[in-house]
Amino acid sequence: MGRKSLAGERRAQILDALARCISRHGLQGSPIKTIAKEAGVQPSILYHYFKDRDEMIEELVDKLVDNLMDSYSARIRGYKEPEKRFEKGLEFLFSPEMQNTEPGGFYYSCIVEAKRNPRVQRSMTKLFRRYRAAVLQLLIETGKTAGLSSREAKDLASMLVAIQDGVALQRHMDGTNISMERMHHLTRSFIRLYLDEKTKRQRRKTP
């Protein structure tokens, strides 16, 4: 048991070093030697715990998503009333946890790397699928998808992810001119307008 615990700690140490390297230098500027130096170990030690750098990236993506999902669940856990639960979930999408600079640097580096690296692309695909699934579940459990087809509900979840992702990118590039609070309120208004319009159309179709 102790040996497994030590291995887990060492793997976490290496992943943290990888995240710092990528945040500062990008993926292209973070070869094994650089990661090992940041972790305070010899390069051979990295290969003892990971097959290669791509495996480190895959695990780091999973770790960051797990951390965000844990924070998200904690944010909405205490709210049972649907509208309040939805509001807290939407609030989280525009919260500081979702705008953290270091994971953000890693995330954008992975987006670039995914264009040429199939393994990183698979990791990012998994990330987006988990993200969309969490948003869709929030919409379903708070009654926002009532009257929507399955495809429309999934499209709405995808649109919310796209809005948050685009706003976050702008904030990273031009933070002084982007207010996450205002973007949160505008997104909430967009959802209400969309759902109201869908309801009106359905009523007009009802004989």
Automatic annotation (TrEMBL):
UniProt keyword annotation of Repressor present: yes
Alphabetical list of InterPro entries matching this protein: BetI_C, Homeodomain-like_sf, HTH-type_Tx_Regulator, HTH_TetR, Tet_transcr_reg_TetR-rel_C_sf
Top-level taxon of the source organism: Bacteria
DNA-binding region as annotated in the record: 31-50
Keyword ATP-binding: no
GO molecular function, one term: DNA binding
PROSITE patterns, per database record: HTH_TETR_2 (PS50977)
Entries under Gene3D superfamilies matching the protein: Tetracycline Repressor, domain 2
Residue ranges occupied by any HTH tetR-type domain in the UniProt entry: 8-68
Signal peptide: none
Sorted UniProt keywords: DNA-binding, Repressor, Transcription, Transcription regulation
Protein name: TetR family transcriptional regulator
Source organism: Candidatus Abyssobacteria bacterium SURF_17
